[in-house]
Design goal:
Elements (H helix, E strand, L loop, with lengths): L2 E6 L8 H16 L4 E6 L10 H9 L8 H19 L2 E5 L9 H10 L6 E5 L2 E4 L5 E8 L6 H4 L5 H10 L3 E9 L6 H21 L2 H7 L1
Parallel strand pairs: 1-2, 1-3, 3-6, 6-7
Antiparallel strand pairs: 4-5
Helix pairs in contact: 1-7, 2-3
Bound molecules: flavin mononucleotide (FMN).
Length: 218
């Protein structure tokens, strides 16, 4: 039995094109994997803190918790809470629209909480590190108003590319990405034309996404 963690970065998922695709994935995943657990961290419902001076002090003292102030101990507990849920998962689904070329700020804040040496990655030498989230797999689902898949725009795309880079850094294998783009520059009918094949792909991926098989193959 595996645990899939859905990292949801949308403030109103009930009226979102991005979450329409995720919901198609999740519906198919649940039907195909009835014994699995699906956890969700809905970031806009969470009081995810931006890393503060207190968090940084707590991070530097975490091996000696008795030296932390009460505020630092509280900040470390917040980090551990997010880490516990993240590290307990076998596989991940990230739902994130493009906002201002990147990810919604709350997702960046969450990533800052869970990128902890000794937990999700470790330093192996000066300037060198390796991921500790080995054997785990991720699907990224995103959408954007413009079109960034053409060479001239590709470098401006820092949402999916960032997610691939940062989760790849901690050792997670990105199995697939489903991205609806150009949604703001077409009418409603063309939006459906963009979304329909992605919804079908999301359903297929939800049915076939199985980290256990990937793990055995590794
Ligand atoms: C705050 C904000 C910033 C955005 N920035 C961009 C952007 O930089 N590039 C882009 O193509 N679309 C941008 N968009 C449009 C969304 O990416 C687009 O509407 C996407 O399909 C999200 O859909 P959803 O909110 O229905 O899930 C932005 C939307 C919002 C609300």
């Amino acid at each position: 039995m595996a645990t899939l963690l859905h990292i949801l970065a949308h403030p109103h998922p009930e009226a979102s094109q991005t979450t329409r695709i995720s919901n198609a994935f999740l519906e198919a995943y649940r039907a195909a994997h009835p014994g699995d657990t699906v956890e969700e961290v809905s970031l806009f419902q969470e009081p995810v803190s931006y890393l503060s001076a207190t968090h940084l002090a707590a991070m530097s003292k975490h091996e000696h918790p008795d030296t932390m102030t009460p505020e630092e101990a509280g900040a470390w507990q917040e980090i551990l809470g997010y880490l516990d849920l993240f590290c307990a998962a076998d596989n991940y689904l990230v739902t994130a629209p493009m906002w201002n070329l990147g990810v919604p700020a709350v997702l960046k804040a969450y990533i800052d909480q869970i990128l902890q040496p000794g937990y999700t990655f470790r330093y192996t030498g000066p300037g060198m590190a390796e991921g500790l989230c080995i054997g785990k797999h991720m699907v990224i689902i995103s959408s954007r108003g413009g079109v960034y898949s053409m060479p001239v725009m590709r470098e401006m795309e820092m949402c999916v590319r960032y997610l691939r880079a940062i989760f790849g850094f901690i050792g997670i294998e990105i199995v697939d990405e489903l991205v609806a783009e150009g949604l703001a520059i077409v009418g409603a009918r063309q939006q459906d034309e963009i979304l329909t094949p992605l919804l079908a792909r999301a359903g297929e991926l939800g049915r076939t996404f199985d980290g256990r098989e990937f793990k055995q193959a590794a």
